[in-house]
Amino acid sequence: MQIYEVQTPSEAETMIGLGVDHVGSVLLSETDWKEPLLRQTVDAVKSLGGKSSLIPLFNEEEAVLRALDYYRPDIVHFCEMLQNTGKGKALQERLCQLQMRIREHFSGIDIMRSIPIPPPGRGNQEAMLAIAGRFAQVSDFFLTDTALPAEGSDTDDAQPVKGFVGITGKTCRWDYARALVDFSDIPVILAGGISPENVERGISAVKPAGVDSCTCTNAVDGDGRSVRFRKDPRRVRKLVEAVRSAEAKLQAS
User: Beta strand 75-78 with 110-117: parallel, antiparallel or unpaired?
Assistant: First the structure.
């Protein structure tokens, strides 16, 4: 079970204490990439027996390699908004090359790749699996995530973070996620709107190797809106309990 976005050692300690296995953090800037507090967070997760996962919101090779050398997470997680267009396929090729370079330089760091799940009426399962197929040999995990539909032609602009998929709080299509599980030879993590309320049903429907939650386990403000980079420990605890319950049911079946 993986929880994002945890940016401080104290919150990382809380997550591990609640039973979270993987603690994810986000590196927001290619320019201001060296954040000692974030490295302390990664180190804290490791020292407490968890696994650290780090998303860089940039993908230039030199910058990524430099950041990984500094932070040394257990997992580097890439979540670009991948599309099967001419431009999109060129990006995929460049990202595959980047992941190969990471494997050459950092044998101890696993690579997680988000696979965008298109909304109903947009995209198709075959295109999604084609993307997964391109990354299968250079990834250690896949993670499903919800792609938002674009009003015009620029799908990148429709996402909460331009060019990247995730933090929508919206449940992905579980039938597509299950198809990815059936297709893939590497573990698939179910993400996209995962909450304490739906995680048992998601695990039962998709049979993933694990689950990931961000937006639906965040704290909320006075208007009920999710607050980025601040978790709600009560909701995380409920999620952990629901996941363990689902795991027990699967083992008993």
Answer: parallel
Topology given in CATH for the domain delimited by 2-252: TIM Barrel (3.20.20)
Taking the domains of the chain in order of start, what are their residue ranges? 2-252
Tokens 């990931």 locate to 212
| CA dist list (Å): 85 to 90, 139, 143, 185 | 8, 21, 21, 25
Q: Tens digit of pLDDT for each residue in 174-232? A: 999 999 999 999 999 999 999 999 999 999 999 999 999 999 999 999 998 999 999 99
C-alpha–C-alpha distance, residues 106 and 117, integer Å: 29
pLDDT at 119: 81
Taking the model in full, what pTM does it have?
0.94
CA–CA gap between residue 232 and residue 212 (Å, rounded): 15
Q: What is the rounded CA–CA span in Å between residue 22 and residue 19?
A: 9
Residue pair 136/96 in contact by the 8 Å Cβ criterion: no
